[in-house]
């Protein structure tokens, strides 16, 4: 089936998301947002640098782009148990409303195909901003030699 020629290219749609925040859609912002959109798991700064490869931004620019994406609400930033910051697409993307599993051996983070549990009832006057559930243990690859 032929593609719809009037449909925006993925990078055009991401540029529009960036412009909707009132900011310029720079090539660096688009490239990093593209990467976060396609990532199956949250990525560290180092993961992003490696994934960008020869098209990599300098370290400072990448930090600034990631900070801007978080400040603008397009990405989320969470520290794992090793205190490594990991970035993912914000609500409405692939990293919203599910559970993460963090391997204590290799440090990788896996998105589980399970909805996050309901938060507990809060006392009067409390307002929940967000709820996260991170499980930790050993992934299948790290357990392969320990049967």
TrEMBL record:
Binds 1 zinc ion per subunit. Keywords: DNA-binding, Metal-binding, Repressor, Transcription, Transcription regulation, Zinc. Gene3D superfamilies: 3.30.1490.190, Winged helix-like DNA-binding domain superfamily/Winged helix DNA-binding domain. Zn(2+) binds at residues 103, 106, 139, 142. GO terms for biological process: negative regulation of DNA-templated transcription; regulation of secondary metabolite biosynthetic process. It holds the Pfam family FUR. InterPro entries: FUR, Fur_C, WH-like_DNA-bd_sf, WH_DNA-bd_sf. Its cofactor is Zn(2+). One of its GO terms (molecular function) is transcription cis-regulatory region binding. SUPFAM superfamilies: Winged helix' DNA-binding domain. The keyword Cell wall biogenesis/degradation does not apply. PANTHER family: FERRIC UPTAKE REGULATION PROTEIN, ZINC UPTAKE REGULATION PROTEIN. Belongs to the Fur family. This is Transcriptional repressor. It comes from Azospira restricta. The lineage of its organism: Bacteria, Pseudomonadati, Pseudomonadota, Betaproteobacteria, Rhodocyclales.
